[in-house]
Amino acid sequence: MGVTKFTDRQEKAFLKYMECHNKTEAFKYAYSTENMKPATINRCAFALFKKDKFVARLSQELQKRRFDSEITQERILEEEKCIAYLDPAQLFELQAGLWTPIAVPDLPEHVRRALKSVDVRVGKRGTTYKYKFWNKDGSLERVSKHLGLYERDNAQKAAVIQINMVQIDKK
Description:
extended; two-stranded antiparallel ribbon; alpha+beta; 8 helices; 2 domains; 171 residues
């Protein structure tokens, strides 16, 4: 599928729209709008992006981005696995009888993927690392739900308990 041809201004507006996702801002970026009222700018922007070639190009870009992102169920589960099975001992290595932290770029990839943030401080006593990890409990719970590990428990909770009520008349 070929790329839709635009004029220079149309291309400029389209690229700005892909960046900001605002048709009016994209139109104002590409076209001279100083003498236009805001309502006119909005109307022109929406008319421009309603044109068939804009709709087709936007569809092409979204399809390309979806393909390029490679978001799959397997990839998401792989990320969850990195979080769920993280062993903090993998942050250190034994050097001369002492456990010393491994620099972040040298950590195994699966360990780096489980990190939420790293605070690195260089001081008189050397470099210190403060790690924050993604929530391991949350990761295990999401994986468990995905694998259906709660189905038996949920079925038990859903069992209906019928209680026969007997009315007692007070006389």
